[in-house]
Structure formats: C-alpha cells, structure tokens
Amino acid sequence: MPGITSQTELTAVVGFTLPDGRLDHDPEVYLTYDKSRSRPTESLRLAVEDLRPRIDSEHLPAPSEQLFRQGYALARHRCDFLDAIPSQDGTQAYLDQTAEAMKQWLECSRVIAWNSVVRRNDPAQVQLKEVEQQKEPEKDFVPTSRLQPIAGVAHVDQDAGWGKELCKRAIGKDVDEVKRAMIVNTWRPLHGPVTNAPLAVCSFENLEEGDISRHASQFGVGLDIHHNPKQAWGYIRHQMPDEVILLKCYDSLQGKDGSALYCGHVAVQVDGDDEGIAQELVKPRESIEVRLVAVWE
C-alpha cells in the first residue's frame, strides 16, 4: 500500500453496517435489543478529508450555520475543567460550561446536559459496559468511572422517535409544547494531538435514504449508516482539546426549515496518522462526549 504523501491524500479504515439488501435474514430483528446479536459490519479503506484547514480558517461559519447545512459543526472552545473531570465537581463544572457554550452557539432558551461518556481506544483494557436506560438527566455521575470503548461503526445516536422521547424526558414535557428541541452532542479529546481513532463525520447532505437503517440498543433506538460511494467523511487531523466537534442527532422541526436532520459519525483508523508526532505524545485516544438537549421556548 502506498504511503501518505500529503494531508490532502489521507485514507482511513471506516466501519459500516451492512445494508438490508446484503443480509440473509430479516433486518427487523435489529429493532428489538438483544446484546448477543448485532448487525453484520464491514471495514472499508476510504479517502477522508482533513478538516483542519476549516477549523483554522478565519472565515469558519458560526456553529449554528454549520449545523443547519451539514448537521455537524467545528468550533474552538477552551475549557479549564478537563483535568478535573475524574470528580463529581469537575464533571459538573465541565457540563455546565459546555451547556452554556451550546446555548451561546445556538442562541436557544436553555440547554440541558443529558449525559456524558468518556471513551478510550484501548481494546485490551476497555470493554463495552451495560448501561441502564436513562429516565432523566444524569446526576452525580463521573464518566471516567465507566470508560467505554470507541464507537467504530458509523451511526447516528437517535432516530426521530427516540430523539423525541429523550427530549421529553429531559424537558419534562412533549416537544410539541415548545417551539423547538434539538439534540446536539459535543465531542473533544481529553489530550492531544489525537493520533489514533479520531472522530470522523459525514454531512447530512452526503447521506441518502438507502444509507440508513434503524437499530435498537441499550440506550434506545439509533440509526445505522451503510457505505455509499457518494458519502464524504472528514476529521480534524491531530485534534486538540480546545477543538470541538458538534454532532446534531435530532431536531423536532424534522427539516421543516430546510436544516440538516443529523450527521453521521464514527471513530476511524487513519493510515499513518502518527507520522511526524513525537513518540511521547502518541497515546490511546481518550475523549469526552456530552449529549445536550437545546430548547427554544
């Protein structure tokens, strides 16, 4: 395999679930959660875009504009609480600051932090842990106490039905009783530069109806993404902790205003991504993701 010669010729191994047409069984079985059963997957080596020029640009659109068009956004946001996350007070301070940043980015009435997860790319030590389905926003939880593995199959966290239900649980009333409700996650590394398993995203503009299937999980119901050559995946090369990716997962307007419904996202393995990085900085990717419910009243 030829080596990478420039940042514009990047390739990565990306995980996808198989579409219905390639299954030898009824895909409806995946609408009932069974931890012993999962949809078959495939790993493909694809060209990926380096999003660093975008986030470094002086002309980067506002996060709300990016979310409207793409379903994801890139933003810079410095946080002083990352080192304190392994404590209840530190986690709460991080959630509060993240929620306030989202409120400013979206210009909404309020933002509710639903939950948080810390993931580490360490398959030998970190295995998927069962989690009881939430009824209300998480309280007094320290995400480093329940490390989860990276999410290596392309997906969207919630389908429209589960997104609506999650918002209802967070807000305390149906989304039809507010002007708008939206689920947007924030994702950032806890240390950088990220040299393995970075988060890649695919714009809603590049997803087609046939690329999507629904699946039940321990968390609710989400969307699987199947590969389509028309998709375009990108990531922030050597992402740092003050560089944040916003991931739209649900919108109560469901596109009535012309906005993207969601974006696809997945941890990928970029070929040669640690080249040129000092060896002492190359370590398993560790990240924190916060699921937020934005409300317009």
UniProtKB/TrEMBL annotation:
Species in which this protein is naturally found: Papiliotrema laurentii
GO MF term list: oxidoreductase activity
PANTHER family: BLL6449 PROTEIN (PTHR34598), OXIDOREDUCTASE AN1597 (PTHR34598:SF3)
Name the UniProt record assigns to this protein: Uncharacterized protein
Family statement drawn from the similarity comment of this UniProt entry: Belongs to the asaB hydroxylase/desaturase family.
NCBIfam families per the UniProt record, alphabetical: CmcJ_NvfI_EfuI
InterPro entries given in the database record: AsaB-like (IPR044053)
